[in-house]
Design brief:
Blueprint lengths: L6 H11 L7 H14 L7 H11 L4 H9 L4 H17 L3
Helix pairs in contact: 1-2, 4-5
Protein name: Retrotransposon gag domain-containing protein
């Protein structure tokens, strides 16, 4: 597969600039996972991945939960966001 020489740089740059913004948490997580997969040849350090995810979350209960668990990996940090969304779905309303 052919890839432009600066493709890895562009993917890393886009990853580092990614923020949740108005997206749902799960859409934000999926976007980050897609970009992480694009860096498979020269992966980012796990601490960088984790920091980008946590700092990119908008202020919300999900962000509070992520910071509360003191995760040491991206996937570990994603867990509370799934749990929070599941709990919200169970609230009668």
């Amino acid at each position: 597969m052919f890839a432009p020489p600066n493709q890895a740089y562009r993917i890393r740059s886009r990853f580092l600039a990614t923020r949740q913004g108005k997206k749902e948490v799960l859409d934000y997580v999926q976007e980050l996972r897609t970009l992480i997969a694009g860096t498979a040849v020269d992966p980012l350090l796990e601490v960088v991945t984790l920091t980008v995810f946590m700092e990119g979350l908008r202020t919300s209960a999900a962000r509070t939960e992520v910071f509360r668990v003191h995760a040491s990996s991206f996937e570990e940090a994603v867990g509370p966001t799934r749990d929070h969304r599941k709990n919200l779905a169970e609230v009668p309303g």
